[in-house]
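Continuing the batch. This is chain 6 of the set; chains 1 through 5 are on the previous pages. Same settings as before, nothing changed between runs. Recording input and output for traceability.
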Amino acid sequence: MPALILTILLAAGSASAAEGRYGETTPKLAQQSASVGGPATIPEMWGAWCARCHAEDGSGKLAEPTITVEPMDFTDCKVTTPEPDADWERAIAKGGPGVGLSPEMPGFEDSLTPEQISGFVAHMRTFCKETGWPSGNNNFPRPIITGKAFLENEFLILPAVSHETEPGSASATNVGLKAVYERRFGRRAMYEVAVPFYNWDFQTSRDTEIGDVAVALKYAAYASATTPRIVSFGLEATLPTGQLYKGFGKGTVVFEPFVAAGTMLGDWYVQSSAKVELPVDTLVDRTYLYNLYVGRDTSAAPNTWTIGAELNGENRELRITPQVRKGLTGTGALAAALGVSIPIKYRGERTVSWVGYLLWEFLEPLRAAR
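Output for chain 6:
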């Protein structure tokens, strides 16, 4: 979005860039513009101010570009729909640097009311003409263990480290690492491939092995466009690629139907997931897994800290996993999380584990274009 046109600035008279902060009573520039016959509605303001860089149709495609970076194509639904309204509102208010993007996008919090900024976001949403895409307002920060309902284009590395000490034997430190690739297809579907690796201490030696590889499909069955609320379900299949006798696999194909859901209660994210492991070999026991996460952001920036905790259950076992998450780039495309999984039941038989992830949203820019 370009700087406001000179005629509007002249008509503003004594209004300055330092005036008009959120909550102040100084008349906003858009209101002054309307009073002197300038653009009065959001579509008119878009055409007068924003279209010079973003194009009238929001595509960013202009015969003669006015900026050196390529604007987001707001008509590309697969790119724009995962974005929450709050990120776009911050970009309009704070400019590109407010969301880790180019300073060629100026900030307008001194010129527009919060209502007008929300109006611009609503107008920008109309550029995506396809229906059925889940709203980005349902795109909550990922917990470490609880399955996320929103569909993603991400690559993750999830480490887990535990330290065991048994009476009469040496202590052992076991390390697990899972690589996960997630990719959306269509408007409401996603596939996932997960490859686990283990490095375990067997007292006399350490052994590094691959575990059971898993593939999954997920479908967003319900996603509200107004109130943050989403429900997804899917099916995962685990292949017996890990060695059973060493504990790196289950020795059979396992089918795992699952469901995941998310909503918000005030400023708090609430996410849950549940699945059942159904081994093809009937001699292998079924496993029931269930998770609940509650957390919140500490600011509106894409690279904010998020604090939260999970309850993680497996059959009759139960753990609590307090955790923190942090965006590593201004855009939030890289993020990391760290938590500690503490047994609540069977504490004498189970150990504390350190868990986390490193996440890359590979369709999002890592930093501002130069």
